Amino acid sequence: MPPAPRYHSVIAETANRLLEEFAVRRYPVNVFDLAARMGIAIEHWPFANLLGGLLFDEDGPCIFYSSNVPVTRARFTVAHELGHFVLHRRQGIYFMCQENSKRLAERQANRFAAELLMPEDKVKQAYQKGQAAADMAVRFMVSLEAMLTRMTELDL
Ligand SMILES: [Zn+2]
Question: Domains in the chain, please, with CATH?
């Protein structure tokens, strides 16, 4: 596996700090509740070609996500938009997010989402208890694909 880009560890720290700040200790992480506690409104719409986005209007920040997807995908999208909010909100006034974008900000937001939903220590604990990948995906409420990717990253 090629070495992880340098920004990975900074983003992991940022995501872990957010979980600590909001005293999130239960898994799966309730990203909808976390966004609300951060003062971010959440809306969902039946988008066809958009996974979600983040915008700022006179009422403040708003995350929107596609309701046309499984709940695990919706959760990952909201976590991704929280990543934009935490990491990038000075750079632009809105984000529109699609699947498989190669832009750095999009990859960073995906990294943030993975760290937020599947923190390294928690995933390793579950793995060391002998949980199978499919059980861990259920426990962290992510897709099996997302969990398998995370486990590969963590050399599990
Ligand atoms: Zn994005």
Answer: 7-118 (1.10.10.2910)
